[in-house]
Amino acid sequence: MIITVTDPCKPLPLEFNPSRPLEVEVGCGKGRFLTGRAAANPETDFLGIERMLGRVHSFDDKCRRMKISNAHVLRLEALYTFWYLLPAHSVRTVYVFFPDPWPKKKHHSHRLFGPVFLRALWKRLAPGGRIEFATDHEEYFRFVTEECFPPFECGDSSGSREMPAFRRVSPMERGPEAWTEFETRFRGQGLPIYSAAWQAAEGADYKLEPMTVAPEDEPREGITRRIGKRYLREMEEAAL
């Protein structure tokens, strides 16, 4: 089912039962991984977040064909979804598999992982919740594992109690049946795959205030967001 956002600043009125576990995949593509998880775990609810409309419809069509009722898809930016729309401490597992690494240094600010996303991520993960991460890009893997997670701490605004937000754990084991579309392609090319996982650690809770955009970061006429040619080409080919 495709979820429609009716109020962009309030938690989603999800069809999910709060008593059931919820798992979220960022960049779910056509749903190969998430629909497989949903079919194998009918007692759990699943949400896919995807920006490309064709893939959203492919995900929805796959759920209908397989008669999967516990998987939903949302066409929206991941950061916005985590910051505004997911209920606090409601997600058991978040999957981020093969996000765009934005390899050029001048584009690093477009990367998903960073202090802002991690702050929203911890706020949405249930106590002890996990994030699973995989990429074929070695430099991006080092960036995420060495620069993003270790130095991040969460605590109240007064700093009276600061605890590491995440602790490193072993990533889940995934066989070929649980590979994403991109992973299947990359492994078929013999590319190395780098995986890591973290668990939400106990810490003082906090409120996510509305985000503000600096004037210099506001969209300007004639300026469009550029996507690395390699990943755009692979996205188009994978959609065929």
Structure, described:
The chain is α/β, with parallel strands linked by helices and 240 residues long. It has a single domain (22-213, 222-239), classed as Vaccinia Virus protein VP39 (Rossmann fold), CATH 3.40.50. Helix content is 29%, strand content 20%. The chain has 7 helices and 9 strands. The chain starts with 21 loop residues before the first strand and ends with a helix. The model is unreliable at 155-164 and 222-228 (pLDDT under 50).
Short structural description:
This protein has helices at about 30-40, 55-65, 80-85, 115-125, 140-150, 180-190, 230-240, and strands spanning about 20-25, 45-50, 70-75, 90-95, 125-135, 155, 160-165, 165-170, 195-200.
Helical percentage: 25-40%
The tally of helices reads 7
Alpha-beta content class: alpha/beta
Report the C-alpha radius of gyration, rounded: 18 Å
> Widest sheet: strand order?
3-2-1-4-5-9-8
What order do the SSEs take from the amino end to the carboxyl end, as H and E? EHEHEHEHEHEEEHEH
